[in-house]
Amino acid sequence: MTFTGKLVLVTGGTGALGAAVVDTLLGQGAQCVVPHRDEAEAQRFAHRGNKNVKLVAAGDLADESVVDRLYGGLRLWASIHVAGGFAAGPVEDTDKAALMKQIDGNLVSCFLCCRAAVKAIKAAGGGGRIVNVAARPALEPRSGAGMSAYTIAKSGVAALSIALAEEVAKDGILVNAVAPSIMDTPANRKGMPKANFDKWPKAEEVAATIVFLASPDNAVTRGGVVPVYGKS
Length: 232
Hints:
Number of helices: 8
Number of strands: 7
Distance between the termini: 28 Å
Order of helices and strands: EHEHEHEHEHHEHHE
Largest sheet: 7 strands, parallel
Radius of gyration: 17 Å
Helix content: 40-55%
């Protein structure tokens, strides 16, 4: 794979999975745009200062004006949407505000970034790739018991990816998503210290699948929601 001369935007690029995606892209010669919510995120980012990375203070990606500013003027090859959030809780304890927080943070942000990405990729001459991040409960809703709001939002991301893939295929834009299980990250290890970490896919492994789907080497795959479960 090579991304030499190609511009890729990665939302959530300062997080565990997003940083692994950016690291893989840089190793393939890409130039990356990475939005962040606050300066603390930017300071922690391993690739801060890399000449091929542009860090952008963006704010809330569920805000249409924020997304339009972020993508404005970019001539993209690919847009990868890792940004999102997780919250568990039974339905009886999940009020409308909690539900909407999951929908805004996961689905609305993804929709708005997909919309802006299609425009930016077309401006660059057509062709290009979009990769979204759903989650295992989007493919297996029963596994979303106890996290229904999150499951609803990520199921929307999966459906969006499939529908959009059909819509923009004529423009040469291939849209796909990945659906990770619990990943082997420091935060997840801390939250579930008794789990068998060996079964969890590593962020770098999930990133490899994302980067392939975003690459020119992916010439035919579209509308996929690819399980990346490892052994879990």
